[in-house]
């Protein structure tokens, strides 16, 4: 049947990091001229598989054939020469340079005397854009800074095509695009497909897969659990494959329901920012409220708006029933609201500071008495947090850079708690930390809520939200599209609801 | 698992860092011993000469204390040398109106220059490197213009005594000024909220902002503080030399920044100590003194000083080079 060799045929790929197996023998096949989706939960092994195909990692075991030829890529450069190009989520374009210059960045067209052949380059770029059917909206001489996000994505693809890519890897290509741009992207993908380019399409947006992909590979726990034609499956079947029947490690988190007539500790009324559209929600004392949504859905933006990072265009934030003005993180902290940000290393910590200095960073105002810092009180607070949160450190003076991810996260949470916050906003606090640390973080948050505080909990793991939160709001493209109470929410339902 | 894998590397890194902070003291002792032996017959170790070193180091170290704050906040100030001259000239010109008026005015002029720097950095968002490069030119131009390139004499004995020329027994008033500013600077950086916020802003301005620290305001404050200390250095120059001239401070840029960096403050912010800066400044003062005693002429001194600065920074900044 198979007349042409497969674009990629990978067999028995294994990869482990520090003794933890991430890929446990994955087979993967990509036919020439097909669009192939790879889906799986966080940690299923998608990105490791892609990094192996892209030459960034080398597999411990297994072999890869490209169009029938066995290959071994030592670097991404090798992979690119082999015809593989990856378009990353965060685009790698130079804003200040023109479209044509970006396309030919890797292989400049030089004329005599080693000077750049600007005109030839523009002509070639024009030809390429025409071939791709996007010449009507992108000019070769246009600076990249003037392109929309979607157009930049097209340009990334054009760059890959200019480098003679026969296999294109698109990583969450629609995450930052408008609906209109998504439609154009799909047209472009069809176009490339017709020209024989094979495309690997990675996404969390399962509905998109049914619009554009020919076949699907589902990964779970480092194994390929299903390979199927899109026409032969449905979204529910995919979800079941992604989740599997994993051992239920979840703990029962029981909290009393708020008394009727109780005032919410935090309330948003029709809050709009540049990314949010009339978001309303309520969090009662002692409650943990979840925000479930895909990457780029607006879940982080809701927290940012409450914390004073994004300007509020309309709507109200109420703390204890009183409207408050929050224009900066400082205002938020003064109102008793604190944020555990998404990126603990870049946004939460000063890595070269000690554990103690990090823990006290939000509460320096309270410690100034009135000129000199009350060091003894600071030490007491830090020692208490280290003990209460069970932060594993050689002492309060240890540099935070040298702690494990889970312990760094606890330091960030401790910092927020030390500033006597009554409302804690947690942005994916369990991301990238091991299971034991995850449970500890949740225990800490649970105790914090039990003391009568309010928590908003964002996570990319829906199982975590389903078992941990008292109520969950569904976020999609900047709006609240649904709400579930504890007894209604399950991982499967949340996963289906966020689509 | 994570912890177990990282543990040996962690311990090694920690040792490397402690070793680096110690190194500056070793450099200090080595240079001191070197001059003590080679310049023994020229009187390097005489108490008079040692007080001389302190006198020569005072202005450098006062400016270096200010620069420690600026670099700790991951900013830079290239205009402070110009402020030194403007402040010296201001105090000298206004002394006939009374000492307090003159000193107050000179400090205010310094604070105003720092405020201009700080507002452009914090409100307009121009990098401090560019702002202070520009204001350095403007301030020097103003100083040259108002003095018409003349030296302004100082004939107020009380002023000269308090601000530079006087001795309390065997101790120069400059030494007292230096110690006082060093102690105040140390307390401000280590023991107050302001100091912690400076270090946090320089260490990671995003985390600092997320922690409720007003990073822009901190930038403004450190530039004002640095300018006021530069103005104080200018006043002390005027008192010690009993005159003021537009060229004052023009050779101090390299020495002040070198003193701070040798003292262990990171050029990229977040790390800095006043104690280290003081040792760095003393190294610079000692080198200057030693080179003069060796009988080198100005050209040779410049060359040697450059070599010694690069040598000391190479030794003490080892951890920074490896990081990137």
UniProtKB/TrEMBL annotation, chain A:
**Entry-linked SUPFAM superfamilies:** P-loop containing nucleoside triphosphate hydrolases (SSF52540)
Q: Name one Pfam family in it.
A: ABC_tran
This protein's GO cellular component annotations are:
plasma membrane
Q: What domain of life does the native source organism fall in?
A: Bacteria
Q: Which GO terms describe its molecular function?
A: ATP binding; ATP hydrolysis activity
Answer yes or no on keyword DNA-binding.
Answer: no
| Chief place where the protein resides | membrane
Start and end of every ABC transporter domain?
A: 8-246, 260-497
Q: Which InterPro entries match?
A: AAA+_ATPase (IPR003593), ABC_carbohydrate_import_ATPase (IPR050107), ABC_transporter-like_ATP-bd (IPR003439), ABC_transporter-like_CS (IPR017871), P-loop_NTPase (IPR027417)
Q: What is this protein called?
A: Ribose transport system ATP-binding protein
Q: List the PROSITE patterns hit by this protein, alphabetically.
A: ABC_TRANSPORTER_1 (PS00211), ABC_TRANSPORTER_2 (PS50893)
Q: Which organism is it from?
A: Andreprevotia lacus DSM 23236
Automatic annotation (TrEMBL), chain B:
Highest taxon in the source lineage: Bacteria
This protein's species is Andreprevotia lacus DSM 23236
InterPro entries on file: ABC_transp_permease
> Which keywords belong to this entry?
Cell inner membrane, Cell membrane, Membrane, Transmembrane, Transmembrane helix, Transport
Q: What is the annotated localization of this protein?
A: Cell membrane
Q: GO CC terms for this protein?
A: plasma membrane
Query: Is GTP-binding a UniProt keyword of this protein?
Result: no
**Record has Membrane as a keyword:** yes
Q: Mind telling me which residue stretches traverse the membrane in this protein?
A: 22-40, 52-71, 78-95, 101-121, 128-147, 159-189, 220-241, 253-270, 277-296, 302-320
Topology versus the membrane: Multi-pass membrane protein
* Gene Ontology MF: a single term: transmembrane transporter activity
Q: What is the recorded name of this protein? A: Ribose transport system permease protein
């Amino acid at each position: 049947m198979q007349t042409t060799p497969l674009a990629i045929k990978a067999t028995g790929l294994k990869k482990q990091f520090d003794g933890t197996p991430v890929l446990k023998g994955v087979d993967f096949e990509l036919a020439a001229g097909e669009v192939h989706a790879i889906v799986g939960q966080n940690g299923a092994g998608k990105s490791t598989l892609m990094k192996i195909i892209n030459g960034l990692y080398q597999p411990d075991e297994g072999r890869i054939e490209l169009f029938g030829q066995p290959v071994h890529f030592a670097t991404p450069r090798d992979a690119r020469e082999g015809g593989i190009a990856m378009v990353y989520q965060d685009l790698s374009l130079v804003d200040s340079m023109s479209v044509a210059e970006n396309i030919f960045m890797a292989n400049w067209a030089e004329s005599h005397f080693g000077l750049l052949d600007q005109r030839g380059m523009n002509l070639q770029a024009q030809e390429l854009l025409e071939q791709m059917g996007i010449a009507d909206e992108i000019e070769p001489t246009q600076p990249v800074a003037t392109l929309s996000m979607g157009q930049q994505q097209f340009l990334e693809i054009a760059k890959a095509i200019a480098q003679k890519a026969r296999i294109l890897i698109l990583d969450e290509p629609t995450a930052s695009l408008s609906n209109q741009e998504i439609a154009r992207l799909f047209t472009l993908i069809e176009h490339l497909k017709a020209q024989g380019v094979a495309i690997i399409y990675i996404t969390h947006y399962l509905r998109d897969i049914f619009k554009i992909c020919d076949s699907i590979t589902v990964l779970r726990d480092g194994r390929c659990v299903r390979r199927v034609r899109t026409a032969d499956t449905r979204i529910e079947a995919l979800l079941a494959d992604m989740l599997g029947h994993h051992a239920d490690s979840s703990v029962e988190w029981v909290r009393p329901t708020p008394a009727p007539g109780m005032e919410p500790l935090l309330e948003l009324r029709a809050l709009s920012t540049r990314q949010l559209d009339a978001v309303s929600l309520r969090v009662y004392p002692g409650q943990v409220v979840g925000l479930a949504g895909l990457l780029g859905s607006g879940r982080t933006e809701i927290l940012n708006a409450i914390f004073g990072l994004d300007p509020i265009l309309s709507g109200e934030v109420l703390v204890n029933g009183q409207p408050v003005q929050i224009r900066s993180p400082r205002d938020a902290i003064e109102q008793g609201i604190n944020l555990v940000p998404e990126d603990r290393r870049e946004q939460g910590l000063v890595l070269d500071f000690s554990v103690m200095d990090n823990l006290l960073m939000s509460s320096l105002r309270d410690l100034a008495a009135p000129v000199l810092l009350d060091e003894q009180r600071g030490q007491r607070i830090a020692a208490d947090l280290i003990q209460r949160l069970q932060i594993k450190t050689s002492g309060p003076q240890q540099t935070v850079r040298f702690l494990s991810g889970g312990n760094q996260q606890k330091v960030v949470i401790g910092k927020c708690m030390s500033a006597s916050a009554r409302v804690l906003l947690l942005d994916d606090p369990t991301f990238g930390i091991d299971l034991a640390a995850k449970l500890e973080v949740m225990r800490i948050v649970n105790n914090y809520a039990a003391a009568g505080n309010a928590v908003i909990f964002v996570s990319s793991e829906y199982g975590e939200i389903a078992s941990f939160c008292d109520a969950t709001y569904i976020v999609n493209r900047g709006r609240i599209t649904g709400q579930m109470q504890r007894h209604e929410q399950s991982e499967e339902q949340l996963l289906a609801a966020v689509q | 698992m994570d912890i177990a894998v990282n543990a040996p590397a962690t311990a090694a890194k920690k040792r490397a860092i402690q070793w680096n902070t110690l190194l500056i003291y070793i450099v200090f002792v080595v240079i001191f011993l070197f001059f003590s032996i080679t310049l023994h017959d020229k009187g390097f170790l005489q108490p008079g000469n040692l007080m001389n070193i302190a006198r020569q180091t005072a202005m450098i170290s006062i400016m270096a204390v200010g620069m420690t704050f600026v670099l700790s906040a991951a900013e830079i100030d290239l205009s402070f040398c110009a402020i030194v001259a403007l402040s010296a000239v201001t105090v000298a010109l206004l002394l006939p109106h009374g000492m307090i008026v003159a000193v107050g005015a000179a400090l205010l002029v310094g604070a105003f220059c720092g405020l201009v720097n700080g507002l452009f950095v914090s409100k307009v968002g121009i990098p401090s490197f560019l702002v202070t490069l520009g204001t350095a030119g403007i301030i020097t131009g103003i100083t040259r213009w108002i003095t018409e390139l003349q030296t302004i004499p100082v004939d107020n004995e009380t002023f000269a005594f308090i601000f530079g020329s006087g001795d309390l027994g065997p101790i120069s008033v400059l030494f007292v000024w230096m110690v006082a500013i060093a102690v105040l600077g140390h307390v401000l950086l280590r023991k107050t909220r302001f100091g912690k916020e400076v270090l946090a802003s320089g260490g990671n301005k995003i985390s600092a902002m997320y922690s409720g620290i007003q990073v822009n305001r901190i930038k403004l404050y450190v530039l004002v503080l640095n300018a006021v200390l530069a103005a104080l250095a200018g006043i002390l120059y005027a008192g010690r030399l009993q005159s003021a001239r537009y060229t004052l401070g023009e050779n101090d840029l390299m020495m002040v920044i070198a003193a701070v960096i040798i003292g262990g403050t990171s050029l990229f912010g977040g790390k800095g100590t006043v104690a280290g800066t003081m040792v760095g400044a003393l190294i610079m003062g000692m080198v200057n003194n030693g080179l003069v005693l060796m009988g080198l002429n100005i050209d040779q001194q410049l060359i040697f000083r450059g070599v010694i600065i690069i040598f000391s920074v190479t030794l003490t900044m080892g951890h920074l080079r490896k990081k990137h």
